[in-house]
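Posting this for the archive.
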Amino acid sequence: MNNYKNISLFDGLNSLRFFAAFLVVLHHAESIRKKNVMENLEWFGLFRNGDNAVTFFFVLSGFLITYLLLKETSKTGTISIKNFYIKRMLRIWPLYFLLVIIGTLIVPEVFGLLHINYVMPYSFGQVWFYFVFFLPGIVSFIFGHHLLEPLWSIGIEEVFYLIWAPLFKIAKRRIVPILLAIIIIKVVLLILAQFWIKDPLFVYTVNIFRFEAMAIGGLGACYIFNRRTSLSDLRIYNKPVQIIIYTTLIAFLIFQSNIQNVIWQTIFFTPIVSSILIDLIFLYLIVGVSLIDNNIIKLKNKVLSYLGEISYGIYMYHVIVISAVIQFLKGYLNNLSPFFSAVIFYTIVILAVILISAISKIVFEDYFLKLKKKLN
């Protein structure tokens, strides 16, 4: 009998975190290059995965948080809401609010002192409320693209954490029906936004609050936690099935809408249905990489694991780094051939983002992570 009730480490997930964060970097790098009228690859599917990468993070968050809550309930019979909130705060809040300060106060001052031709779309006084109360997505809705745009997904996760732990404690024996209800309610809201309610704020809010992705991750956690036989025995993880699903996923991430085949477009670009399918494929990937013995994708690698550990920083800092590189080097890069311009641009951006994220973790984030470990 397999015991999935006391897993302390899901191997390979740090590597997946890095790959997801890297896809976001590629997405924003090309969209910002396009915005600055530079040669870009924004048209190619590989460089348009920001939305898919964030969806993966949502599925992963729902999976891990639900598993941890199930594990705590099994061991103690209850949930410590206080400890849950403190742990999430220590992991998320320090870097989140540091970026808010950098992006709304420090960067505008630095750009002004250096006479850089960059106009902030908002002032601190206009947006502080939304950032403090974890509604950064509303900033994007009102002001458009900006340096702190990636923070919108952090706000969604914070709202989810705020709701999920108390709800889990109250209704711990009805978690699966609640998760299914979340998915159904979200589908209904998406249908309303698609066909009836055309208010822009309603449509935008419904689309960014992807609780259905977190619920699908949560359902996966419930299934695994209560599984008594080996997950590797599941037919859906036979090697031929793995090859089909992983090959399809990789092709989707590389090409996306570049493939104009009717069947392809129906599978991956049908409103509502396709997004649920992609959530399920991401869950399949998470379980496969971390728990399936014969999984064909192996990601137990020290370098990738370390990059996954700093992936939160990579995700948070990258837009500021990309924007700074373009502001300082745009003229030089535009004088090069498209190939060499891209090579130099990405070399500088990737090295700078990794270096800044590594330093941030060592000198800033680790202090709070050590406090978090004490609670464990």
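Residues 338-375 form the longest helix (38 residues). The chain has a mean pLDDT of 94.
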